[in-house]
Amino acid sequence: MPNYRSLIGGFFSSTPMDKSTGPVTVRMNNPGAINGAPWEKTYPGYVDTVETTPGNRSTIFEAPEYGVGAWWDLLRRYRAGNTTTVGGIINRYGGGQDYSAYLQFVAKKTGFTPDTPVDLGNDQQVLQFGRAMFQYEAGRTPPWSDDQIVCGIRGGRAFAGTGAWPASPQAGPQVGPQQQGPVGPVANGQIGSGDLLALLQKLLVALVANAAGPAAAPTAGSALSIPVVAGNPPLPVILSPIDKLFGGEALVGSKTMIGVLGYGLVTILKAAGVLGAATPAGQILSILSIAFTVLGGVAKIDRMTQSLGVISANSK
Fold first, then answer.
1. Are residues 128 and 34 in the same domain?
2. Cα 43 from Cα 163, distance rounded (Å)
3. Do 148 and 86 have their domain in common?
4. Residue 217 shares a structural domain with residue 100
5. Burial class (CB in 10 A: 0-12, 13-18, 19+), 260
6. What is the pLDDT of residues 248-281, one digit of tens each?
7. Is residue 13 situated within a structural domain?
8. Total of domains in the chain
9. Over the chain, what HEC string results?
10. By CB neighbour count within 10 A (0-12 exposed, 13-18 middle, 19+ buried), where does 273 fall?
11. Are residues 230 and 102 in the same domain?
12. Which residue, 128, 288, 291, 301, is most buried by CB atoms nearer than 10 A?
C-alpha cells in the first residue's frame, strides 16, 4: 500500500485516481507531469504509471517531493544530451509538438528568455523555472510550497549523485488535498523559510533581552534626559504611543537598531541564496524589518517632541 505523504510537511494527494480532487499532476504528486520512462520505476516514491487519457501516461509518486526530484532528474538527462536552455527543455518536453504557448507562459512568469541556460545546481533558478512549468502543467497555481519544491530539487540532485535519497527531517503536520499546511525545514540540513522566521525571532528576542537589562541613568543631552527640578522626584521616562505598543521601556531606543539588524540579516540570506527574494518569507521579513526601522524613527521624534513640551512646562 503506498505511503502517501509530504516529506517535509505540506500539500500532498492520497487520491491519485479521483478526478474530482484536482488536475493529474496535483492528485498524482507529479508536478512535472513525468510520463513513465523506464528509469522512473526505480525512482524513490514510485507507485505506478497509468494512462490518464488515450495516449497520455502519468506517473504516480508517494510524495510531491519525489515527483519534483524525478522532474529534476529528467532535466539532468536532457543536459547530458546538450539540452540546457529554457527553450530547448520545453521544446523537448513537447516531443515534437508545438509548445510555443508553453514557452511564452514560462518566459512571462520567470523573465527568462528561450536562450537562458538552466543551471541545475542553482536552487533559486530551478525553483523559479519549475514553479512556472508546474503551473502550466496543472493549469492553475500549484499547491506545493517553495520549500517542498526545493526539497525535491535537492533530493533529486543527491539521489543522482549517491543513489540514495537524503534522510528527511521529521515532517510537520501532514495536509490532505485542497489544503496548504505548515512547512517544516528543508531536507538535507538546508534552511527553509520556517527556519528563517525562527532565526529572526531568536535574534529579536536576544536584542530585546539585552535592551531590557539594567537601564543606565539618562545622560545630559540625551533625548530622554529631562531636567529635574530641585526638591521634586525624577520624572518618568516619556513613552510614545509606538513605544507603549512595542515593548514599552524595554525597547526604548532599540527599535531602529533591531529593524536595521533584521533587514541586514534578511539581505545577507538573500545574497547567499538561502532566502528567495520572491518567496513569501523573503517579502514578509523584508517588510517587517523596514517597518520596525521606520517605527523606531517615528517613536524617537515623538519622544523628543514630548520631552521638549515637558521641559518648556517645567521652565515656566
1. yes
2. 10
3. yes
4. no
5. middle
6. 555 656 656 666 666 666 666 555 555 555 556 6
7. no
8. 2
9. CCCCCCCCCCECCCCCCCHHHCCHHHHCCCCCCCCCCHHHHHCCCEEEEEEEECCEEEEEECCHHHHHHHHHHHHHHHHHCCCCEHHHHHHHHCCCCCCHHHHHHHHHHHCCCCCCECCCCCHHHHHHHHHHHHHHHHCCCCCCCHHHHHHHHHHHHHHHHHCCCCCCCCCCCCECCCCCCCCCCCCCCCCCHHHHHHHHHHHHHHHHHHHCCCCCCCCCCCCCCCCCCCCCCCCCCCCCHHHHHCCHHHHCCCHHHHHHHHHHHHHHHHHCCCCCCCCHHHHHHHHHHHHHHHHHHHHHHHHHHHHHHHHHHHCC
10. exposed
11. no
12. 128
Say yes or no to pLDDT of 163 above 50.
yes
Q: Which of 69, 73, 64 is nearest to 10 (CA)?
A: 64
Residue range(s) defining the domain that contains residue 82? 19-162
pTM recorded for the entire structure: 0.57
Res 296: pLDDT: 66
Q: Is residue 115 part of a domain?
A: yes
Cα–Cα distance list, 81 to 89, 102, 125, 200, 206 (Å): 11, 21, 20, 43, 52
Cell numbers linked to 122: 542553482
Q: Strand 46-53 and strand 56-61: pairing?
A: antiparallel
Amino acid identity, position 265: L
User: How far is Cα 278 from Cα 248, in angstroms, rounded to an integer?
Assistant: 34
In a shared domain, residues 213 and 268? yes
**Alpha carbon separation from 71 to 15, 78, 204, 244, 276 (Å, rounded):** 21, 11, 39, 52, 21
Question: Is the pLDDT at 222 greater than 80, yes or no?
Answer: no
Cβ–Cβ under 8 Å, residues 265 and 259: no
Q: Name the residue type at position 133.
A: M
